[in-house]
Structures are given as structure tokens and as C-alpha cells.
Amino acid sequence: MLRKNPLLSLKMFLFFGAAISSLVVSFLPLYFQNNGLSKSAIGMFFALGTLVGLIAQPVWGYMSDRFKTVKKIIIVVLIGIFIGIFWIFQLNSLGWLFAAGSLFFFFFTALNPLSDNLAKRIADEQKVSFGSIRSWSSFGFAIISLASGFYFNKMGVGALAIPMMIVAGMTLMLSFTLKDANSGAKKVNLKEIGNFFKDRTLLTFFLLSFFIFLTHRVNDSFISLYLFEIGGNEMLVGWLWFIGVLSEAILFITSFIWFRSESPIKYMIIAGFLFTIRWTMIGFISDPSVLLSIQVLHGICFAIMYMGAIEYLYKALPVEMQATGHMVFMGIAFSITNIIGSSVGGFIFDTFSGSTLYFILAVCSFIGTIGFILFSMKEKTQKNIEMVEG
User: Fold this and answer.
1) Closest CA to 129 of 8, 254, 12, 300
2) How far is CA 363 from the centre of its chain?
3) Could you list the residue ranges that cross the membrane (predicted)?
């Protein structure tokens, strides 16, 4: 049934792929804490994962473009994830745990970018909205997070291994039903990719994206702590994430109504202004219930920004370099921003306050937004010149 319906197969795959992420992000730190690891050791484990991902993502993207397949690379990645999960839950030694974590993150950090790359290509081939497919990742993350909260409240977080193995196994089985995407006829090499990414316009796009996505990643790291600072509790943290990711899913699934691919930078400018407004509002908040209501903007800001960024990137890149380009973008927008944001954001939070941190985020996103306005004006001028010369 799934093989005959490639879109359904892809949606189910995205749902369970995001479910792995949900368990890793939401409950693996709690599992380690339950097993006696210090907060610093847990932090080092996930920081190591970010560094490994920064190296691994471009490698897997290049492999996908080089061998003209996304599906087969996803299958290899999922086998690695399955082995990594199994190894992590067998260990007590911190050194071996870090080794197992390095193996796990080498594969795990490639899963979501490769999945999004496949979803984008299939959406373009089938002439359907990318967001309507991508929404299944958000639904998977939100639903599994909420369901897992009830499950672990009853069973204890020490029972994490079996659900993670089951979800990873189901995702692996679903990967075999996927339809591969067109990767272009031309094979790429490292020299061509290196020359392409010297393009000043693309580098400017990456830099401006960095400014705004940095604020998104800092918020991911510190929103829960800020909620506690203004009087929240663990239950409200669960609802905070559920509201944010659910709003994201709704925006993605309705993108065929509001998103038009002709002017992707316009959406990034809109998202940048919304981010600026959101961070400013959060900086003034002292009531946890108000923060929960503003969390609806999480999905609105991210979905608009991500849709615009991916659409622009895929217009700028030749088809044979799209997987590599997507992975480089994810490394900049999510990995590098996470490393810088977590360290600098933590210093600002500890030294000053959560409010100060969010006011700085507002300034940072405003700078990125103004940059995109100038970037858009320059692109329009260049197009007009090309039309006159043509």
C-alpha cells in the first residue's frame, strides 16, 4: 500500500523520523540524569553531538549528491542510528558513552536534513506544497512528545531504550518504502562544490540567515529556563513545547494557502519582523501564562522563515548540488548557531537576566531583517539590469 502511494509513505516516514528527534531532545537528557550523569556531562554529550553533526551533515549531503540518491543514504543513516541507540543504552562508562554518542550523532544529525531534502524534491516533482509534507515532521514531534510524557510519567524515564529502538526500527522499515527523488544527471565533485559556495550572493544569504536562525536556536536552549525564572514549572514546559510545535505543524500543513514560491525572501523579511516582535514581547513578560500564549508565534515565525529559506536555496542551487547545499545550510542555521548561541546565551542569561537575553535576540533578528530587505532590493536591481541587457 505504501509503495503505491509515495506521498503517504513519505509522510509516515517523516512522522516517525521526527519521533526519534522528539525522544532524543525531550527525554534522553532526563534518562542520563536518572542514571546519575551530571548536568555538565549531559551538556558535553549534546555539545559533542552538535560538533559531530557540523562535520557529518556536509559529508552525507555530498554522498547523496555524488551517488545520486537520497533514499539509500537515508537507509544507511538509519542503520547507523539504530546501532548507535543500541550501543548507548548498553554503557555505564562515560568515555564509552561519549564514543557511542559520537557514532550516534554522526548518523542522527543527518536524518532530518536528508528527510527535508527528499520531501522538498518529491514536493516539486509531484507539484504539491512542501509545507504540507513537512508538517508531518512537526506532528510527529508534537504528538510523540505529548504521548511520551504520559508514558514516562507512568513507566519512568528509565524505560526509554525500548520506545527509542521501536521508533527507530519502524522508521528504518518505512525508509524502504520511500520513492527516491530526481538528483540531476550530472555528477558533482568537491572542486565544483567549493567553487559554487564561493558565490558572494549565496554567502550573504547564509550570513543573514545565521543572524535570524541564531535567535531561534538560542530560544530553543533557554526558553524552558526563562519559563522557570518567571515562575513556571515542569508541566508548563511540556505545554510550552507542545503549543509551539503544534502551531508549526499547522502553519506547514496550510502553507499551500499562504505560501507563494515566487518571492521567498519576502517571507524571510516577514518572519524576521515577527521574530523581532516576539523576542521583545518575551523580554517584558513576567507571567508564565502570557508566555504560553505567545508561544503560538514559535510555529508561525519558524515555518515562514524555514519555507522562505528552503525555497530560495533550492532556486539558487543546481539540482545536483541540492543535498549538499541543504546540509551546509542546516549546519549554519542549526549547528553553528547552536554552538555559539548556547555558550554566549548562557553567559548573558547568568550574568544579566533572561529579559536581557531576549532583548538582545530582538536586536539580532532586527539586524538580520534589515539585511534581508537590502538583499532583496539588490536582487531586484540585478534582475532589472539583466532584463535590460537581455
Assistant:
1) 254
2) 23
3) 12-32, 44-63, 70-89, 95-114, 135-152, 158-178, 199-218, 238-259, 266-286, 292-314, 326-349, 355-375
Could you report how far apart the first and last alpha carbons of the chain are, in Å? 50
| Helix locations, the chain, DSSP H | 6-34, 39-67, 71-88, 94-126, 130-155, 161-175, 190-196, 200-229, 234-253, 255-258, 264-284, 288-294, 296-316, 322-330, 337-351, 354-389
Residue 69 zone, left/alpha/beta (φ > 0; ψ -120 to 50; rest): beta
Q: Is the pTM of this model over 0.90?
A: no
Residue 10 CA: distances (Å) to CA of 15, 16, 53, 148, 197: 9, 10, 24, 23, 30
Note the residue count of the chain.
390
Burial 164-199 (b: 16+ CB within 10 A, else e): beebbebbbebbebbbbbebeeeebeeebbeebbee
Q: What does the alpha-carbon distance between residue 376 and residue 264 come to, in Å, rounded to a whole number?
A: 10
Q: Phi and psi for 238 in degrees, rounded to 5? A: -60, -45
Place of cell 536552549: 221
Buried b (16+ CB within 10 A) or exposed e, 266-302: ebbbbbbbbbbbbbbebbebeebeebbeebbbbbbbb
Q: What is the 3-state secondary structure (H, E, C) of 246-310?
A: HHHHHHHHCHHHHCCCCCHHHHHHHHHHHHHHHHHHHHHCCCHHHHHHHCHHHHHHHHHHHHHHH
Which residues fall within 8 angstroms of residue 59, CB to CB, at 6 or more apart? Answer: none
* Nearest Cα residue to 140 out of 305, 268, 253: 253
Q: pLDDT of 241-279, one tens digit each?
A: 788 888 999 999 999 999 998 899 999 999 999 999 999
Say if CB 27 and CB 150 are below 8 A apart: no
Can you give the pLDDT at residue 58? 86
Can you tell me the distance from the alpha carbon of 6 to that of 179, in angstroms, rounded to the nearest whole number?
6
Do 157 and 35 touch, CB atoms closer than 8 A?
no
> 54 or 383, which is more confident?
54
pLDDT value of position 184: 56
- Cβ neighbours, 10 Å, residue 200: 7
The C-alpha cell of 245 is what?
Answer: 510545535
What domains are there in the chain, each with its CATH number?
1-183 (1.20.1250.20), 185-390 (1.20.1250.20)
